[in-house]
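retry 2 of 3: previous attempt timed out while embedding nicotinamide-adenine-dinucleotide. Reduced batch size to 1 and resubmitted. Inputs unchanged:
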Amino acid sequence: MTDNAILVTGGAGFIGSHYVRTLLTGPETADVTLTVLDKLTYAGNPANLRPVEDHPRYRFVRGDIADAALVGELAAAHGTVVHFAAESHVDRSISSAGDFVRTNVLGTQVLLDAALRAGGRRFVHVSTDEVYGSVPTGSSLETDRLDPNSPYAASKASSDLLALAYHRTHGLDVRVTRCSNNYGPYQFPEKVIPLFITRLLDGGTVPLYGDGLNVRDWLHVDDHVQGIEAVRTAGRPGEIYNIGGGTELTNKELTGLLLDACGTGWESVEYVADRQGHDRRYSVDHTKIGKELGYAPRRDFTTGLAETVAWYTARRDWWQPLLRRAALP
Ligand code: NAD
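retry 2 succeeded.
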């Protein structure tokens, strides 16, 4: 079984589909074959994979990562698992956390078990900076204690620790990445950047939480894929790698940039009550992946954001059908 036969869970979502499109079109990865396993929840969208759907090195399987029989068969037929599948929206985890525990914790354990039973597969676990909790100053190191606050972050911290436990207990080749907030094309319009862009393009208002001073680090999805590939191909088993974008902004600063980009002003902003348990600031230190694997974010935020706005402006056909699905439960 070759390491280049990759099972990509959650490959119909925002980041997973970017990973698949990138690997199937890039010259450095001409030797990989990719199977996407995706349940197609409200966040999974076959349209994200349409550009590669006829590619000879690609296959799609609709299914649940918590289905042990299916996952067992797939793990046996692949050398590597790159695990993106998750319930990913913090606000949904506040209204209802059950699916987050089921998919993010139980589903990850089922996958880890399948990778182990298949004789040991490389397992890249895609985690998040939210596992570190809020960091008032400085930046989180991979060795920092996990202190998640939202049910989403707690479910991701659980799966992150389970993945590491499978390495420490069973010697499984697990590599964990913890990245900051991603942005780019094909992101579901419930997340802040596409939510704001699509509402502003439709002449509507956008909701700004609390005082708008919560800080996030922004990572272009191209750079995230670059970091994951560095970890998949050259990372060390049992290691954790932070992947940052190097652009920290308050939500208010981000809103100002999006208003300018969409040609409107602060009259389009509605201040709304803060999200419960809203972390004030995330920031990851990505020195380790830089020194060890040569990672550095390449995408300039101003250009990346302008391209993202241009993509949503041109692709109403992609996002308009999703708006009803974006409503919170
Ligand atoms: P997304 O919500 O866009 O996509 C998730 C995908 O997983 C969807 O295609 C969905 O159908 C699929 N899925 C959900 N439950 C499943 C199940 N039980 N079985 C099979 N498939 C299932 O998410 P995303 O933004 O692309 O995030 C991908 C990963 O990156 C997640 O693990 C997330 O926690 C992590 N992450 C995301 C960000 C971000 O900014 N988007 C930041 C840090 C970490």
